[in-house]
Specification:
Blueprint: H1 5-17, E1 27-29, H2 36-42, E2 48-52, H3 69-75, E3 79-82, H4 85-90, H5 95-107, E4 111-116, H6 120-124, H7 128-142, H8 146-153, E5 157-160, H9 174-189, H10 193-198, E6 201-203, H11 209-216, E7 223-224, H12 233-243
Parallel strand pairs: 1-2, 2-3, 3-4, 4-5, 5-6, 6-7
Family: Belongs to the triosephosphate isomerase family.
GO cellular component, one term: cytosol
Subunit structure: Homodimer.
Length: about 240
């Protein structure tokens, strides 16, 4: 929940100026919903994709304040975050609700970015993968048939965000991040090797230009879900350049 018209215009233009037509990595920005339309206008004729930060699991109706997948799609968004740690912790979104949102996003032609991750207490208790598997399994279980669930999961993106490393300045070491990313991929490979190999798994825990090189060099880290560093065009572009 950052920004205004002036700052968003400055940020998007700052990013756009430094992207050329030969840019290889995927670049996605997810502004507050009020500014999606403006961001899409600013991002025209560039490599920047635009997404939402959240969506409702409902189709439409008496859900004051909610934003539907159709609304996001109507504005021109093509991605949406689901299950961000702040949605889970501050707004009590359960694994089951996040799974509903993931399914609704796909139904509406949006690419869902499924955020998963553990708290500090869960990491210290040694239950990181138990927590992460539960968050992934909720999506698979939503479709009842796991084969279908895995196919659907493969149409989205996974973002591993250790809750203890978000906005704290504390970053998981490259080895810690890689270990969890590898475990996620290994878990998926026990059910569908193709999905495991193809799905993008992003790291989202205080990634910035200073540490992006080491993190993105890890075999199973396919990109970053950038927080505070995305509010500065030069810092964000520096990470993009490291990604290649």
């Amino acid at each position: 929940m950052h920004g205004n018209l002036a700052s968003i215009e400055s940020l998007v233009n700052g990013i756009k100026r430094q992207l050329d037509s030969n840019w290889q990595s995927d670049v996605l920005v997810c502004p507050p919903s009020l500014y999606i339309d403006k961001t899409i206008q600013l991002a025209q004729d560039s490599k920047i994709s635009v997404g939402g930060q959240n969506l409702s699991e409902q189709e439409q109706g008496a859900f004051t304040g909610e934003i539907s997948g159709d609304m996001l799609k109507d504005l021109g968004a093509n991605y949406v975050l689901v299950g961000h740690s702040e949605r889970r912790s501050l707004y009590n979104e359960s694994n089951a609700l996040v799974a509903e949102k993931f399914a609704k996003a796909l139904e509406k032609g949006l690419v869902p970015v499924l955020c998963v991750g553990e708290t500090l207490e869960q990491r210290e208790n040694g239950t990181t993968m138990e927590v992460v598997k539960g968050q992934i399994d909720a999506v698979l279980d939503f479709y009842q048939d796991k084969t279908t669930g895995l196919e659907k999961l493969g149409q989205g993106v996974i973002a591993y965000e250790p809750v203890w490393a978000i906005g704290t300045g504390v970053t998981a070491s490259p080895e810690q991040a890689q270990e969890t990313h590898a475990e996620i991929r290994r878990y998926l490979s026990t059910m569908n090797q193709s999905v495991a190999e193809k799905v993008q798994i992003l790291y989202g825990g205080s990634m910035k230009a200073a540490n992006a090189g080491e993190l993105l060099a890890q075999k199973d880290i396919d990109g970053g879900l950038i927080g505070g560093a995305s509010l500065k065009a030069d810092e964000f572009i520096a990470i993009c350049k490291i990604a290649g």
